[in-house]
């Protein structure tokens, strides 16, 4: 069967968009589930979280080994696998993973996003009108949530990226009053200067600059044997 080609400037029929969405959405969800499981598998190996999960399991009586006799007696391997599963479940339920490895949600897949788009649009419009009324017209002071929103917008970070930051990092942003545009610009320039100074003293960067000066990316050197 020959593929259907749409000439430039022609609109793609809705049926084709629907087909693509129906195929992509399950794949998207499966990919997110895989990333989430990889994150859980990694956290299980981190001593900090593993020790905490083990303590919680002991407090809840989930790791109390009882003597088993007869046919019900399990091997050491079976006991170890069960303990690993208990620790994994505790980490999964107790730790809030944010960012690109967060727990997948059906509302985040493409198909649901398209269906819910009118709701999201109306919600954003209502939020924007409320923001303008409260902080532009009525001159209310920003709360912590509003301050963090402005900081995230200045940093051009997505919500998932910002949520993945440590809480003490966000607290530092608040202490520096980065929701004020002038303070943020000064902070950004300061960070840029720090990065330049760090790169200037980095041995790897020194070697790279020396190589670029002597050899260059497109220079060929012929050595007689």
TrEMBL record:
InterPro entries: DNAJC25-like (IPR044632)
Main location: membrane
Keywords: Chaperone, Membrane, Transmembrane, Transmembrane helix
Subcellular location: Membrane
Name the UniProt record assigns to this protein: DnaJ subfamily C member 25
Protein's gene: DNAJC25_1
